[in-house]
Amino acid sequence: MKRIGVLTSGGDSPGMNAAIRAVVRKAIYHDVEVYGIYQGYAGLISGQIKKLEIGDVGDIIHRGGTMLYTARCLEFKTEEGRKQGIEQLNKLGIEGLVVIGGDGSYRGAQKLTELGFPCVGVPGTIDNDIPGTDFTIGFDTALNTVIDAIDKIRDTATSHERTYVIEVMGRHAGDLALWAGLAGGAETILIPEVDHDMNEVVAKLNRGHERGKKHSIIVVAEGVGSGVEIGKKIQETTNFETRVSVLGHIQRGGSPTATDRVLASRLGARAVELLLDGKGGRAVGIQQNQLVDHDIMEILDRKHTVDEKMYNLSQELSI
Ligand code: ADP
């Protein structure tokens, strides 16, 4: 391969820029040209494609978001849309594509590979919900953003002796809530993968209150339900002064942590290696600190699971 493309797609995550930089520099290091595709699959179809040089990815390693922008593109779900995309790539002589994004983006990459265009997926999402990798790019940064918020809320929760419900992102995956709850010392963590009993949540709050606890923190993944509704129920059943904080999109932004930058650099470079070895239809990841790659189809067929032992530990430490 002498010419490859790179795009970011779906929800953005901090560290995507570091991954783009790694793809560009690794390719150029191997005398391969790199083209940046802007606005994800939408830009692929409409041909928003530009050659990237070493300097184009300078000064971005520490920036959140994605310099290539990202988009959601319904047209790409049709074969016609994907064929248009391939035409654009063929016109420029691009022979392989690195797709940085979540599972939706992986589906697009898989479908392109099925049409004979080799793609490699790089896991970029704050949700940490891609099978075949222990961590996704952006998770560590989002986790630290949430922890920063929990620590601050804890101060005011203590001063006012309040119960706080903190809603974090994660429609289908509870990793962010679980890790943040564990690291933030939350009393209760509610995640979509584990059913909860509101009576038990309330009983735990009461036990804490009887023990003289000044405040309580409950971390809820958005997939469980509205934090506001959960807060209301708690206020009604316990009579403890309860406040709700929905952290929202601040979790997606910010300068990536060193861990995310290193992860993004390693994964981005590995994706280029695979393409140069002629391997399409793969998804890169990190497992037990080793770089790995799997068949994208196999990753898409697998269901994300939350670390059960870690969930149990969070229960044991928040008695
Ligand atoms: P994420 O990659 O963060 O999971 P989405 O699920 O929104 O985000 O997917 C991003 C984009 O990937 C979609 O807007 C669409 O263009 C493409 N995509 C998603 N699912 C498919 C599919 N089944 N076939 C082709 N393209 C898809």
Short summary:
The protein has 319 residues and is of the alpha/beta class. It has helices at 16-29, 40-46, 79-91, 103-114, 139-160, 175-183, 198-210, 227-238, 258-276, 296-301, 308-317, and strands spanning 3-8, 33-37, 49-52, 96-101, 119-123, 163-168, 188-190, 216-221, 242-246, 282-287, 290-295.
Folded structure, characterized:
The chain is of the alpha/beta class and 319 residues long. It has 2 domains: 182 residues, Rossmann fold, CATH 3.40.50.450; 111 residues, Phosphofructokinase domain (Rossmann fold, 3-Layer(aba) Sandwich), CATH 3.40.50. Helix content is 43%, strand content 18%. The chain is built from 11 helices and 11 strands. A 7-stranded mixed beta sheet has the order 3-2-1-4-5-10-11, sandwiched between helices. The protein has a 4-stranded parallel beta sheet with strand order 7-8-6-9, with helices on both faces. α6 packs parallel to α11. The radius of gyration is 21 Å and the shape is elongated. Adenosine-5'-diphosphate binds next to α4.
